[in-house]
Amino acid sequence: HGIAALLYPFTWQHTFIPVLPKVMVDIVCSPTPFVVGVQRQFLEQLQELPIEECLMVDLHSGTFLKTVGDEHDILPHKLYKELLNALQNQRQANQSSQELNDMVTNTFVLFFIKIVGHYSAHLKQNGNETTFQERQFRKSVTSKSIRRFLKTFMVTQMFSLFVQELQGQPCSQEGFFEQKIKEHQENRNKVK
Hints:
Elements: H1 2-6, E1 15-17, E2 34-36, H2 43-47, E3 56-58, E4 63-66, H3 77-91, H4 97-116, E5 123-126, E6 129-132, H5 134-139, H6 144-153, H7 157-168, H8 176-191
Parallel strand pairs: 1-2
Antiparallel strand pairs: 3-4, 5-6
Helix pairs in contact: 3-4
């Protein structure tokens, strides 16, 4: 559930099973994308299965049990470092569970703001129809690493659904993500 929540403002579009029952462990051999939670007691059985392109993480120890190999190349390096530093700095602070949850949420929302927060400049109203100018959206980013990430990310179902929802909403509608974008822009303007 935590991983799915951290994707906000995007939504995981594929199989999501928070806790997989033992009788269904072989479902992880499915050739489709999935996020599945498996109890530690089934780990040995899980590791014996022929699973292709799988990222397996032990959430208890915080270690990778199996990797695909591109984990360090997917995210834009600078933003990845900022994300990691923010999370590690907060980890050392004495905080309540709610404060920690809010900090983690805001850290990931800021990450997505830096990647896609400029989307509204690429929504064009044509009568009653709103269109999203994908090519201009990606090309408007000055960072090459973010453009590379966007090239891959923009073909996912998560991004497609995000765009569909934008195109279906009235332009005046403002949600949590839009409020955070506005706050981020105001903070950047104050620094300048």
